[in-house]
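Dear H.,

Thanks for agreeing to be a second pair of eyes. The structure we're designing against is below in token form, covering all 283 positions.
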């Protein structure tokens, strides 16, 4: 049986498509009616487009964006790998089974054996810590507290691993503003010679530099928006996998922990050691 998170996130994309369809259906006629496409400067020439996308600051923004995207891709791939741990069958799903302190060590070895390939897995790590604490303290509450504490530590570690990406997301618009300031300075530095003949050339050069200045910030802000969306998506998935691992441990392990001698259990119940010792080596 496969573990499923109670919080479904697949419904967000259909809602996004619906929102875009509604906005497009309303705004497209208004755009045509207002004649916004006929405004001066609404079309981009190839010369202006080339100046907009290619430049020293733009290349620096592209480098930061690519670096951050590659880091996010690695984080996203690791989240997908962690999700595979739920399909390994680390814990049994049979109803009525309880885990005694004597079963903790054998079950811990089972988790280690099943998670050796493709690991390390966060889910297996939480299960091992909970079983180790239960075997020592014989207290289900201590095992549950260990799971919650370790989950909080993992959330903090994941947030700390995103510090470089947060810096790059801040650096991209900052580089855009640097380009804007630099081109404004170049525009103001083009001083005309004495005489009216140099005035048209001065105005043309100043206008060109100002256009490039603001286009640089536009490109940087667009890249920053895309990066922040990717960062938010991956960070949300990371937090979700930690919470799902915590929920899995609490529901399927901590709730089955039982501190009592085997003879005190009701007759129909079995311990995990007797159930799985026949088909899985523990030593």
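And this is the sequence the design step returned. I haven't edited it by hand at all.
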């Amino acid at each position: 049986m496969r573990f499923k998170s109670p919080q479904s996130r697949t419904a967000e994309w259909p809602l996004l498509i619906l929102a875009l369809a509604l906005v497009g259906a309303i705004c497209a006629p208004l755009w045509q009616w207002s004649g916004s496409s006929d405004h001066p400067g609404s079309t981009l020439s190839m010369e202006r487009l080339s100046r907009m996308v290619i430049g020293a600051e733009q290349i620096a923004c592209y480098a930061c964006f690519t670096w951050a995207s590659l880091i996010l891709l690695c984080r996203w791939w690791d989240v997908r790998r962690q999700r595979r741990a739920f399909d390994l069958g680390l814990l049994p799903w049979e109803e009525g089974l309880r885990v005694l302190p004597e079963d903790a060590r054998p079950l811990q070895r089972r988790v280690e054996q099943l998670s050796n390939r493709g690991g390390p897995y966060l889910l297996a790590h939480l299960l091992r810590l909970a079983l180790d604490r239960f075997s020592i303290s014989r207290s289900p509450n201590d095992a549950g507290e260990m799971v919650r504490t370790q989950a909080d530590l993992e959330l903090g570690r994941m947030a700390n691993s995103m510090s470089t990406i947060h810096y790059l997301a801040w650096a991209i618009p900052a580089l855009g503003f640097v380009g804007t300031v630099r081109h404004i300075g170049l525009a103001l530095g083009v001083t005309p010679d004495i005489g009216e003949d140099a005035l048209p050339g001065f105005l043309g050069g100043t206008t060109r530099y100002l256009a490039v200045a603001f286009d640089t910030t536009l490109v940087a802000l667009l890249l920053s928006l895309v990066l922040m969306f990717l960062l938010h998506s991956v960070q949300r998935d990371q937090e979700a996998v930690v919470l799902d691992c915590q929920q899995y441990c609490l529901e399927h392990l901590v709730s089955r922990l039982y501190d009592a001698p085997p003879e005190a259990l009701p007759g129909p119940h079995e311990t995990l050691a007797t159930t799985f010792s026949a088909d899985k080596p523990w030593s």
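Two observations from my side: The chain has one domain: 47-276. Residues 268-283 have pLDDT under 50 and may be disordered.

Warmly,
E.
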